[in-house]
Amino acid sequence: MTSVLKRNNVTVIGEGSKVLMFGHGFGCDQNAWKHIKNFFIKDYKLVFLDFVGAGKSDLASYDPQKYASLDGYVTDIIEICDVLELRNAIFIGHSVSCMIGALASIKRPDVFEKLIFIAPSPCYISSGDYTGGFDQETIDSLLEVMEEDYISWARSIAPDIMDAHNGEELTSELSTSFCAIDPLIAKQFARVTFLSDNRKDLPLIPVESLTIQCSDDMIAPVSVGQYINANTRNNTLTVLEAHGHCPHMSHPAETVHAINAFLQ
Questions:
Q1: Less Cβ around it within 10 Å: N or C end of the chain?
Q2: Which residues are tagged catalytic?
Q3: Where is the AB hydrolase-1 domain (predicted)?
Q4: What is the mean pLDDT of residues 204-213?
Q5: CATH code assigned to 2-263
């Protein structure tokens, strides 16, 4: 029990009986949720975690083979739910963790009763009629630059991911978070993230879900949210006025409003 919670630096706070579990995106850790957690702390029990390699997770637990696909992270989510005896919880994911939560719900339908996706993408590479936001050449180039100098890459891409219009403070916060991750782990997680294709899994999601998409997001354009909505049963699509890929950080009130509208 302790090893699972320590591995993912699991934190549990809040006063409610209903559980919200939060999964962070690539380059972040559970601190990314600090901008919205106080909106929920009185009405829900909140479970935060760091994926292995991020934040204060146990780096010694990192296994390149286990985490060579999203399945390793899915296993961790399910183990955390089992240790905490969570059933019918609500999973709130950002970016890549949206698909991690979705896959966990497919594998174990009992752990989550609802899924909330913030800036999700089932596939980042455009193919045929599907517009994912990137072509294969761009992704290959991105991963190549990252391999050569991860820190410089992280600092250069943070303003685009956050959207510089959201301010230097948030851009700096995201850049610092990116640079705090072990570069070797970050490189593998990036490769797993950007090369994953979970489009075929969308129709298998067994529970109700909400897709929150930003109106201008270089990582996950509105077309991706529309694709998820069209191919996922019982999915609601909400497009925010917010720009950038991290609305829970840059536009917390608008993000919380969308979440509450879905939960009520």
A1: C
A2: 95, 217, 245
A3: 22-257
A4: 99
A5: 3.40.50.1820
